[in-house]
């Protein structure tokens, strides 16, 4: 039994003399007669949840009365607090007692204080407002001469403390690092660890002191400091390489049994400490030969010593293997580690087998031969009755997938997928299958069938990137145009077959994909006809259905989760005859459908369907709701069968059938690994050409773009392929100013949301000209895409206009040209170019009259907040009839603002000397002047401390942004903030206000609250940005 | 990293819970119910680790009491598995044969041991540092 207990117990009296009657079981059993005791026993005796609720509510109301009564003594309060803790642990709200917990910690004697602190740490969370009331008590106790009080204060700080108040206690805690009692030093280290977790910047200056803690003569203090080091090394291993020697020495001492025997657990010396040290070494030695060499010896020793057959030595061995494979490789160690994995995998103990599979999964990419060695075991695990083992095996297979075994592996994954019900598993697995299919698909048919399976099962829970990428792939195509055509044709055909099946229910996303591919929805014609003939209700427009919904109690809810339906301004435009419209053009559905989707924005896939969007589905679903999901798996199966049959012929037929099947499966699973099996210590490069990978490389994208510009009449597919390049393109053009390609960007929501701009001319135009697009998309929850100018004949006018002034400026991102004023002779449109160093406004004057314009002048009224300078642009000497002339002005901001109007006028002379003037104005937003600021986390830290102006605010996040990364992405896209780093639930962002005022943002997430903290050298900027952030977060 | 530590009996009554990241009370009850359900659904031939949402659950059964630890995917399952046992051994020593009721009754003792921020490697040294009596 654990010796440590004894040690601890013997150490106690020194600290806890005050608690005389305490100690040990006797006292423990005695207090069973207390009121908590009777509450616990009362609850245990109950049989139903309902009774429990009744009892606890009763208890709570009596507690409520007691705690608020003025006669209640602290002793009673303590007793109440314990019961409150118990009630809250069972899930009943006891918030009325929180404030009393704080008071108890403030006023009570030692034991009462102890209970008060405990209750506080259990009840409150870090951003709870009551927590601030605790700070004074903590400060007082830290200064106490009573060690127990100091201990309690340190304990509570290490569990929960308001971040803003760290400076109030930090010096006190730093002092405690030198305390003569080791328990105080240890607790101080743990308190500082807590600070490091919640506010790393604030403890940066005490790194030196951590080193002292690492070398402390007390093992406990040293061990506590390892938490901080593990964390810091994880963030930045290069800063701590010089400590490698110390960690190695410590591990050597631990492994060599130099610690007091009290630290043994089942005669293994301090196993958890060893694990911690091994993790640290793994991080330090990663990709660093010199550092790794320092630890080879001790790793070897660890592997050797951990030979005892006990679970905890397996845990250490697992960590050793992990470290050996993480650091710069040494063949001798790898061999031993591999042997160790072998032992795990072959073990009959299920927990050990699991550990073996997990280790194998980790090392398999470095050393695929290991998979070959254990292939039969892996096959057995694939059919293991424990789903967890199966799951881990699939994870392993996922890592060794290549072009040859992809069909078998994906089939296995799909099998598992069909059995699992847990959403998290489905999301995860579906993502992996989609990834493998994209990378390694052997042919079109397989690819489409697999993706169909993915969409049917993954449905509405899967990651939206999957359908997006898939559609992008279909749109972009690959190198071979005929093959692309086949792929698309196959896709459409397969959807038609799927939809022909009766009584079938497909997930929303899948239907969205289908209807994107065949936007005319021609494939639904039969359905609709059939549905109607069988008495299904004919289509009703949205508002009508809404009314019916109100009157009808039981109406099916078709709203997919996670989709937000912004109330649609387009609803009215929706043609009630939407479906028949679709049917009219169904003759050449595939062609027209795709052409029309030209104007659809690919990025918006996840919002594809508005309230009307799934109407056709409603029609088709009127039959049966409960149909199962049929997955077109046949062809995948066939593939597998074929693969197996082929091997079959070369097999000797003497084995038992079952054995043979396994062998076959093995040969199809591990095909391709053998050839690469020469051990590549540095990890194998992924040389497989990614068959279905989307082209995202800059160069590729560009050449593709150029070709299609020359080739304006090429098929609708290639125009789509332009579209799909969009987002990569944007990112790259920022860096590639030198290139002068003829290209326009329609304003992309990636960078600036349409809402944040005041103009949306093309969107309007397109929604008009794409009226033939089925009613599905008329709803404005469908984002409309602006095609590249070169392929959009319908905007020829704009495009010529644009190209004339674009030659100079195409390198930058700009908004769409928008007409700001006009009369019978001229029309003035303007657009913004967001250059790196300024905002460039371009006004272009188009002469509509056919008469010659003698001269045209543009003048800007002076504005308070900005400086406007004319840029010598392309000046045409004479503005001829039907031609344009443009003026460029650079705008510099002088003082931050939220929104301002820039106005001016155009004056011109016609041939007949008649002169005229036309006024205009344009809205400018602060966002027009915000640019990402690309700095490192380190610089961020420095800047952060140097800025005096800060603003902090909690913002509630909407469901769709619930996770930090998605919230930050929103900020990045809409406000052009640069994401520097995401650490756990915190994120660092930075931007600058032109010309060069930096602003830093620190984000932190609690539940659904995002805490935004801005700092800047400018006093007003944080407020303005906060406002914009709030707008963005609420808006989306 | 350990995310939460639970002791729940077969009837689904929580005997001890400690969360290292804030979880709303209402969500806790649901989580505990689901956790114990998935533990009960496992047989002896199956391994002691379960996937639950984005954590792993590591559980051990002592008579009618389940001890379940929720961790994220960077944790070493076996180390936690043994840590649970170590914890129980310590309790057993302290109470000279620990029982389920001891656990619920001495809630505060147990919480006293959770010093180490979701890391088990400190717990033993710290165990029972604070005196539990007279509560």
UniProtKB/TrEMBL annotation, chain A:
Component of the adaptor protein complex 4 (AP-4). Adaptor protein complexes are vesicle coat components involved both in vesicle formation and cargo selection. They control the vesicular transport of proteins in different trafficking pathways. AP-4 forms a non clathrin-associated coat on vesicles departing the trans-Golgi network (TGN) and may be involved in the targeting of proteins from the trans-Golgi network (TGN) to the endosomal-lysosomal system. Residues 616-636 are annotated as: Disordered. One of its GO terms (biological process) is intracellular protein transport. Belongs to the adaptor complexes large subunit family. It is a peripheral membrane protein. The lineage of its organism: Eukaryota, Metazoa, Chordata, Craniata, Vertebrata. It is found in: Endomembrane system. This is AP-4 complex subunit epsilon. Keywords: Golgi apparatus, Membrane, Protein transport, Transport. It comes from Macaca fascicularis (Crab-eating macaque). Residues 931-1034 form the AP-4 complex subunit epsilon-1 C-terminal domain. It comes from the Eukaryota. InterPro entries: Adaptor_Complx_Large_Subunit, AP4_complex_esu, AP4E1_C, ARM-like, ARM-type_fold, Clathrin/coatomer_adapt-like_N. One of its GO terms (cellular component) is endomembrane system. Adaptor protein complex 4 (AP-4) is a heterotetramer composed of two large adaptins, a medium adaptin and a small adaptin. The gene is AP4E1.
TrEMBL record, chain B:
InterPro entries: AP_complex_ssu, AP_mu_sigma_su, Longin-like_dom_sf. The keyword S-adenosyl-L-methionine does not apply. Belongs to the adaptor complexes small subunit family. Its main location: membrane. Gene3D superfamilies: 3.30.450.60. Keywords: Membrane, Protein transport, Transport. Component of the adaptor protein complex 4 (AP-4). Adaptor protein complexes are vesicle coat components involved both in vesicle formation and cargo selection. They control the vesicular transport of proteins in different trafficking pathways. AP-4 forms a non clathrin-associated coat on vesicles departing the trans-Golgi network (TGN) and may be involved in the targeting of proteins from the trans-Golgi network (TGN) to the endosomal-lysosomal system. It comes from the Eukaryota. Residues 1-106 form the AP complex mu/sigma subunit domain. The lineage of its organism: Eukaryota, Metazoa, Chordata, Craniata, Vertebrata. It is found in: Endomembrane system. GO terms for cellular component: cytoplasm; endomembrane system. GO terms for biological process: protein transport. SUPFAM superfamilies: SNARE-like. Adaptor protein complex 4 (AP-4) is a heterotetramer composed of two large adaptins (epsilon-type subunit AP4E1 and beta-type subunit AP4B1), a medium adaptin (mu-type subunit AP4M1) and a small adaptin (sigma-type AP4S1). It comes from Macaca fascicularis. It is a peripheral membrane protein. This is AP-4 complex subunit sigma-1.
């Amino acid at each position: 039994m654990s010796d440590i207990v004894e040690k601890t117990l013997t150490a106690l009296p020194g600290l806890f003399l005050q608690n005389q009657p305490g100690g040990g079981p006797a006292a423990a059993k005695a207090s069973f007669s207390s009121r908590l005791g009777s509450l616990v026993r009362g609850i245990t005796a109950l049989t139903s949840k309902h009774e429990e609720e009744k009892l606890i509510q009763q208890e709570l109301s009596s507690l409520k009365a007691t705690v608020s009564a003025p006669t209640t003594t602290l002793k009673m309060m303590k007793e109440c607090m314990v019961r409150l803790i118990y009630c809250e642990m069972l899930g009943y709200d006891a918030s009325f007692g929180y404030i009393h917990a704080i008071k108890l910690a403030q006023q009570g004697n030692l034991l009462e204080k102890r209970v008060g602190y405990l209750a506080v740490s259990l009840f409150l969370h870090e951003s709870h407002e009551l927590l601030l009331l605790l700070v004074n008590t903590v400060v007082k106790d830290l200064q106490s001469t009573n060690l127990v009080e100091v201990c309690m204060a340190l304990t509570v700080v290490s569990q929960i403390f308001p971040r803003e108040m760290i400076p109030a206690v930090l010096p006190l805690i730093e002092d405690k690092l030198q305390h003569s009692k080791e328990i105080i030093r240890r607790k101080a280290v743990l308190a500082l660890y807590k600070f490091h977790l919640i506010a790393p910047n604030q403890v940066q200056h005490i790194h030196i002191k951590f080193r002292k803690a690492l070398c402390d003569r007390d093992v406990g203090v040293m061990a506590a400091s390892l938490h901080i080091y593990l964390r810091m090394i994880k963030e930045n291993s290069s800063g701590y390489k010089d400590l490698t020697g110390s960690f190695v020495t410590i591990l050597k001492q631990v492994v060599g049994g130099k610690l007091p025997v009290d630290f043994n657990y089942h005669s293994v010396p301090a196993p958890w400490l060893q694990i911690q040290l091994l993790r640290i070494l793994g991080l330090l030695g990663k990709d660093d030969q010199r550092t790794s060499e320092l630890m080879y010896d001790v790793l070897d020793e660890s592997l050797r010593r951990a030979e005892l057959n006990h679970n905890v030595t397996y845990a250490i061995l697992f960590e050793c293997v992990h470290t050996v494979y993480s650091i710069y490789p040494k063949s001798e160690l790898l061999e031993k580690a591999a042997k160790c994995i072998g032992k795990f995998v072959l073990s009959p103990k299920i927990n050990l087998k699991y550990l073996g599979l997990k280790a194998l999964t980790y090392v398999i990419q470095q050393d695929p031969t290991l998979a070959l060695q254990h292939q039969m075991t892996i096959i057995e695990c694939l059919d293991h009755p424990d789903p967890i083992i199966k799951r881990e095996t699939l994870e392993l297979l996922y890592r060794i997938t290549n072009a040859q075994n992809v069909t078998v592996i994906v089939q296995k994954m799909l099998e598992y997928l069909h059995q699992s019900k847990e959403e998290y598993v489905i999301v995860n697995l579906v993502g992996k299958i989609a990834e493998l299919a994209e990378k390694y698909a052997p042919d079109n048919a397989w690819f489409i069938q697999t993706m169909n399976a993915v969409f049917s099962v993954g449905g509405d829970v899967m990651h939206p990137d999957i359908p997006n990428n898939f559609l992008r792939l279909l749109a972009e195509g690959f190198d071979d145009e005929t093959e692309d055509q086949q792929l698309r044709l196959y896709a459409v055909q397969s959807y038609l077959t799927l939809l022909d099946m009766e009584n079938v229910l497909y997930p929303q996303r899948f239907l969205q994909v289908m209807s994107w591919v065949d936007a005319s929805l021609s494939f639904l014609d039969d359905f609709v006809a059939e549905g109607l003939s069988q008495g299904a209700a004919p289509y009703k427009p949205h508002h009508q259905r809404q009314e019916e919904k109100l009157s009808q109690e039981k109406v099916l809810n078709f709203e997919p989760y996670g989709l937000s339906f912004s109330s649609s301004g387009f609803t009215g435009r929706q043609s009630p005859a939407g479906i028949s419209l679709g049917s009219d053009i169904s003759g050449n559905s595939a062609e027209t459908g795709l052409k029309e989707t030209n104007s659809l924005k690919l990025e918006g896939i996840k919002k594809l369907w508005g309230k009307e969007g799934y109407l056709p589905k409603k029609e088709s679903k009127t039959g049966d709701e409960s149909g199962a999901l049929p997955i077109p798996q046949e062809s995948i199966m066939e593939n597998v069968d074929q693969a197996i049959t082929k091997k079959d012929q070369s097999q000797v037929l003497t084995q038992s059938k079952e054995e043979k099947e396994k062998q076959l499966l093995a040969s199809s699973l591990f095909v391709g690994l053998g050839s690469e099996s020469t051990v590549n210590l540095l990890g194998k490069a992924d040389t497989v050409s990614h068959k279905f990978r989307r082209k995202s490389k800059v160069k590729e994208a560009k050449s593709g773009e150029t070709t299609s510009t020359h080739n304006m009449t090429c098929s609708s597919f290639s125009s789509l392929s332009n579209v799909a390049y969009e987002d990569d393109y944007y990112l790259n053009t920022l860096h590639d100013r030198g290139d002068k390609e003829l290209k326009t960007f329609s304003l992309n929501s990636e960078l600036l949301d349409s809402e944040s701009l005041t103009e949306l001319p093309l969107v309007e135009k397109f929604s008009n000209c794409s009226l033939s697009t089925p009613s599905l998309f008329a709803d404005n929850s469908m984002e409309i895409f602006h095609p590249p100018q070169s392929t959009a004949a319908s905007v020829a006018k704009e495009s010529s206009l644009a190209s004339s002034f674009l030659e100079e400026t195409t390198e930058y991102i700009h908004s769409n040209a928008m007409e700001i004023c006009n009369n019978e002779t001229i029309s003035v449109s303007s657009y913004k170019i967001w250059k790196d160093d300024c905002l460039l406004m371009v006004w272009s004057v188009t002469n509509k009259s056919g008469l010659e314009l003698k001269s045209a002048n543009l003048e800007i009224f002076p504005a308070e907040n900005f400086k406007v300078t004319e840029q010598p642009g392309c000046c045409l000497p004479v503005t001829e009839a039907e031609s344009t002339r443009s003026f460029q002005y650079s705008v510099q901001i002088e003082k931050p603002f939220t929104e301002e109007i820039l106005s001016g006028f155009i004056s011109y002379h016609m041939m007949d000397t008649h002169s005229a003037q036309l006024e205009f104005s344009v809205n400018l937003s602060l966002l027009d002047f915000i640019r990402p600021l690309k700095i490192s986390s380190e610089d961020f830290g420095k800047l952060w401390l140097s800025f005096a102006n800060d603003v902090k605010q909690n913002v509630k996040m909407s469901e769709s942004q619930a996770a930090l990364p998605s919230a930050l992405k929103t900020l990045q896209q809409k406000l052009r903030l640069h994401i520097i780093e995401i650490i756990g639930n915190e994120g660092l962002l930075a931007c600058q206000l032109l010309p060069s005022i930096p602003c830093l943002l620190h984000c932190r997430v609690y539940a659904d609250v995002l805490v935004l903290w801005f700092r800047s050298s400018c006093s007003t900027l944080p407020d303005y940005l906060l406002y914009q952030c709030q707008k963005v977060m609420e808006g989306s | 990293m350990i995310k939460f530590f639970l002791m729940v009996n077969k009837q689904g009554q929580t005997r001890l819970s400690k969360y290292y990241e804030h979880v709303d009370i209402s969500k806790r009850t649901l989580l505990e119910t689901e956790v114990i359900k998935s533990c009960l659904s496992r047989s002896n031939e199956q391994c002691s680790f379960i996937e639950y949402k984005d954590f792993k659950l590591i559980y051990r059964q002592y008579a009618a009491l389940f001890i379940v630890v929720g961790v994220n995917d960077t944790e070493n399952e076996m180390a936690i598995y043994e840590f649970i046992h170590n914890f129980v051994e310590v309790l057993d020593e302290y109470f000279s044969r620990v029982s389920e009721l001891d656990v619920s009754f001495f809630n505060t003792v147990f919480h006293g041991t959770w010093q180490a921020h979701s890391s088990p490697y400190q717990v033993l040294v710290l165990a029972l540092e604070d005196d539990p009596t007279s509560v």
